[in-house]
Amino acid sequence: MIEIKLKLKELLNLRHFPLANVEYPHKKRDYFIAAFTFFCVAICLISDANASLEKQNALGVSGWVFLIGLLLGENREVRMQVVIAVIFATIGEHFASPFMGGYTYRFGNVPAYVPPGHGMVYLTAVALARSGLFLRYAREITTFVIMVCGLWSLWGISGLAQQGDAVGALLFCVFLVYLFKGRSPMVYLAAFFITTWLELIGTAVGTWKWASIDPVLGLPQGNPPSGVAAWYCLVDAVAIGGAPLVLYGFAKILNYLKIKALQLRSAD
What we know:
The protein is mostly helical. It contains ten helices and two strands.
């Protein structure tokens, strides 16, 4: 009993959350990235609802142009995080959609705009996570997200929903673990907003559809699952954890090449 109380106290301490009652600075760039991505996501998914494959490819080109433009103002660590997020998410998309059939796009493919889209979505989560608004009201926003997603999950398993969503409820529990035990809760919190936005629009207009029965767990899932943000949090966690390792590896390689180049010059 004492151990349970200690764990609960540790959980409520929110040690990885920003300090409360602090006036954090607002940067226009962070809000621009978020607003621009929310707008682009809506336009892209609605446009793709009845688009040809050629138009999908054109949307993909536009996505890469926008992503590269947004990254020009970021440091190399964030850029590397985005690169890792794009690679990991794209591999995951091909595995989860065409291979496993967890959800299906209109043409049974992974649209060309999806890889750069994942980059923009990740960058938006980072931008919102460091914004003055999210840092100042982290606890209030957390309460709002838990209430909304929690009620959504309960609805999915209540028997009242047209399509059951046991998978969504499980993913919501996973999302809570990310939020309270992860080292980057603000990124995960921000991810909920942009990913819920894109999932609701994408499924509403028919750009993709989630399978009514999850092919791995064999459980009913919503369209989209209520806790779908948890999948995106996995991408975020891999990007955040992998970027320092990759940058360190590159630095070691460059240092090695410099030493070799100096040795060759000395030998001459």
